[in-house]
């Protein structure tokens, strides 16, 4: 019987479906991975689901193993942890790996596209690797120094990961700032002090902004000390955001600088690779406190119904975990028409 897999596709903005597809055997230098868990990256995947990726950014925003094009049909996602079932390298067979792959039951990729997950990291926590990788990149951009005063504005998935990584630096004061008081519990679990925007400590040497809101960016500028940097991590899609560059912005000689995971920071490009960065992210995930960022869970077959709820804010998860333990070979084979077969939401 022909081997098949099931994948989640965004059919058009606001509407997703499960499709079946023929799955080829791995060739030399490739691996076959069976997915254990995938994660919904709420911020970016909501923008994709709503069709809010600007046309000018269609190429830039392509995920490594994306199929189709924005606004749809498109197979999108990049938080996937699975187990290698077949590989040319026998040492990889049976290993748990992370891959920047969409929501799909099985897939074939080059062996160098997967990163082995350390034994100290459970597979379900490994889906956070893509977000922790973004945090590592942001911290490299921020370049904190001993004793720095740092605010992270926005306690979403990325902001929480950044705060967690920064809190490991010696003698650094880190405060996680968010307008939602409920995020205080997440900050406490991560071991990071929390503050509402109006209560946040100012005179910061660095402010990392990740709230994806105009108000958060304005508050970030206010919290920065003279000659400080604001590292902008938020991605707004097609939304236009006003930046308050009047008042004391120029007299305090503030610097507003972007950080984006698609490129290594200039200071690291000659000495680090993307593989180095991903391996470091997985190493950092040995901290069990990061498990608190997984705040929702659904089965793979529920994705067509779950994604609209995540996008609408009905499921206000940081990372929403997708489980695959109820998927069998028979489930995929039952949809053997290939890309023609689907279950729409």
Please characterize this protein's 3D structure:
This protein has 345 residues and is of the alpha/beta class. Helices cover 23% and strands 28% of the residues. The protein is built from 9 helices and 18 strands. The chain has helices at 42-49, 123-126, 129-142, 157-166, 183-190, 214-223, 274-284, 303-311, 329-333, and strands at 4-12, 15-22, 30-41, 67-68, 74-75, 80-87, 96-99, 106-110, 114-116, 149-153, 173-177, 194-195, 204-209, 224-232, 255-258, 294-299, 319-323, 342-344. Strands 3, 6, 7, 8, 9, 16 and 17 form a 7-stranded mixed beta sheet that branches. Strands 12-11-10-13-14-15 form a 6-stranded parallel beta sheet, sandwiched between helices. Strand 1 (4-12) and strand 2 (15-22) form a beta hairpin. The longest helix is centred in the middle third of the chain and has 14 residues, at 129-142. 43% of the residues are buried.
Keywords:
9 helices; alpha/beta; single chain; 345 residues; 18 strands
Structural class: alpha/beta
The global form is: globular
Span between termini: 28 Å
Work out the helicity level. Answer: 10-25%
Q: Could you give the order of the helices and strands?
A: EEEHEEEEEEHHEHEHEEHEEHEHEHE
- Main sheet makeup: 7 strands, mixed
Strand % is 25-35%
Number of strands: 18
**Rg over alpha carbons:** 21 Å
pLDDT < 50 stretches: 333-345
Average pLDDT confidence is 92
Gist of the model:
It is built from nine helices and 18 strands. It is α/β, with parallel strands linked by helices.
Secondary-structure blueprint:
Blueprint: E1 4-12, E2 15-22, E3 30-41, H1 42-49, E4 67-68, E5 74-75, E6 80-87, E7 96-99, E8 106-110, E9 114-116, H2 123-126, H3 129-142, E10 149-153, H4 157-166, E11 173-177, H5 183-190, E12 194-195, E13 204-209, H6 214-223, E14 224-232, E15 255-258, H7 274-284, E16 294-299, H8 303-311, E17 319-323, H9 329-333, E18 342-344
Parallel strand pairs: 10-11, 10-13, 11-12, 13-14, 14-15, 16-17
Antiparallel strand pairs: 1-2, 2-18, 3-6, 3-8, 3-17, 4-5, 6-7, 7-9
Helix pairs in contact: 1-8, 3-4, 3-7
């Amino acid at each position: 019987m022909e081997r098949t897999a099931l994948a989640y596709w965004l059919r058009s903005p606001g509407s997703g479906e499960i499709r079946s597809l023929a799955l080829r055997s791995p060739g030399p230098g490739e691996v076959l991975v069976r997915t254990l868990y995938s994660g919904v990256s709420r911020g970016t995947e909501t923008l994709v689901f709503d069709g809010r990726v600007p046309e000018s950014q269609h190429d830039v925003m392509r995920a490594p193993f994306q199929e189709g094009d924005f606004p749809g049909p498109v197979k999108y996602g990049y938080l996937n942890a699975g187990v290698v079932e077949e590989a040319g390298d026998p040492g990889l067979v049976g290993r748990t790996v992370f891959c920047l792959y969409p929501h799909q039951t099985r897939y074939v990729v080059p062996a160098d596209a997967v990163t082995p997950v350390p034994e100290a990291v459970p597979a379900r926590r490994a889906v956070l690797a893509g977000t922790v990788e973004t945090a590592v990149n942001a911290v490299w951009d921020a370049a904190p120094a001993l004793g720095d005063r740092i605010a992270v504005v926005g306690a979403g998935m990325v902001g929480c990961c950044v705060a967690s990584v920064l809190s490991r630096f010696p003698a650094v004061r880190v405060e996680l700032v968010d307008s939602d008081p409920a995020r205080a519990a997440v900050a406490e679990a991560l071991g990071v002090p929390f503050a509402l925007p109006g209560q946040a400590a100012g005179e910061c040497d660095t402010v990392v902004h990740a709230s994806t809101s105009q108000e958060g960016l304005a508050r970030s500028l206010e919290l920065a000390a003279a000659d400080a940097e604001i590292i902008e991590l938020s991605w707004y899609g097609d939304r236009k955001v006003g930046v308050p560059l009047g008042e004391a912005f120029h007299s305090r000689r503030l610097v507003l600088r972007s950080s984006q995971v698609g490129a290594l920071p200039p200071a690291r490009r000659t000495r680090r690779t993307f593989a180095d960065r991903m391996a470091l992210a997985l190493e950092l995930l040995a901290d069990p406190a990061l498990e608190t960022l997984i705040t929702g869970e659904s089965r793979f077959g529920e994705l067509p119904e779950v994604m609209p709820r995540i996008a609408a804010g009905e499921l206000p998860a940081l990372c929403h975990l997708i489980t695959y333990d109820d998927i069998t070979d028979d489930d995929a084979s039952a949809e053997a028409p290939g890309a023609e077969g689907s279950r729409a939401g």
